[in-house]
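ok so I'm stuck.
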Amino acid sequence: MKNNTSIENIYQLDGKVPIGKAIPFGLQHILAMFVANIAPIIIIAGASGLDSKQSTMLIQSAMIIAGIGTLIQLFPLWRIGSGLPIVMGISFTFVSVFCYIGPNYGYNAIVGAVLVGGIVEGILGLFAKYWMKIITPIVSASVVTAIGFSLLSVGAASFGGGSGSEDFGSATNWILGTITLLCCILFNIFAKSYWKQLSVLFGLIVGYIVAACMGVVDFSGLAGTSIVALPSIMPFQPEFNANAILSVVLIFLVSATETIGDTSALANSGLNRDATAKELTGSLACDGFISALSSCFGCLPITSFSQNVGLVAMTKVVNRFAIASGAVIMILAGIFPIFGALLSTLPDAVLGGCTIMMFGTIVVSGVQMLGKCGYSQRNITIAALSLSTGIGFTQVPEIFDIFPQIIRNIFAENCVAVVFLVAVILNLVLPKDMEAKNMEAENMEAEKR
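replied:
not stuck anymore, here's the structure
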């Protein structure tokens, strides 16, 4: 009898993969996003005045909720979830607005705003078919390209040792980042068969060992970490502040545009097709409702992680079972804090050595999507103007200083939001037959001559 369990199924969305061989692919995804998953918690908890015990509790909840969200994306519940290999994690998009809300209104107001905002995005996701018509392929392609470009600085910052670190750009970080990157490239060149797709994991392991030998891995966080701990339900009583809710709901709309871009990019680069309306609807609904669930654990909104979209684009590993093994690892990391604490010792420079290439892959995916849309005058105008304003203006955030705080929170440092807004407006106002009208005008001018 033929065995349907095969490692070759890693390139298929559905199909059985040997559990022992699925785990490395799942672990690779988790290592690629682990630091980025807990970093927003650390930043916002510090800004909101939470103590170390509360921060640790939130990090634990973040890992569990990210694992749950990933499983629901992979294996939808009703209309919630896309069925695509999307990995979820705590969103960086909300950091700036939460760093304003936390000190001014308190962390409880953040929790209340996340609860309301998540429900709003979830409902909008379920009814996406009524408004998704404005998200045409050229808009999606522009957003995906913007996501890729916006992540390049994140990868570079990690390569240098992590933004704000005392030894940023040091020789040690350059050595670690370069060794990790070279290991990824060389492994991908010389490895055979499906082993090639574990190049990121190989680079991370080698980089980690080198970092440990150089004495730059910080194990101090392991001291006093409990072996087993269950997450707390409603550790913070939600407070519903109108200003906080309005700000956060608007950022949820921005996060939704990133989710649309991530889902479109993943389907395009991993499955060589466009995302279906059902997949986009499920992805948005999962983003929203699981974020609302996250607030019940006192945690922050979760969203699709572009890092992992880049990893799928690079490896073409799309098997849901393999990715699900990573989601289970995240949940275990939350239930067994010692495991999560060990994963968090991964140096930024090592992570940067891997992610810099992954993020570049997202840029290339966006460019490929632009090519599929066709280089008509209308498409060129939409892509060129949205990308130039989105990327250009956010490079000099001071340009938004004349606007109210809420506008600055949304647009000043979020090029994806600007690209999306400009692309949608242009898509709505530019005539569909621009080429025909231009040709007609040229012919009339020629006749006058």
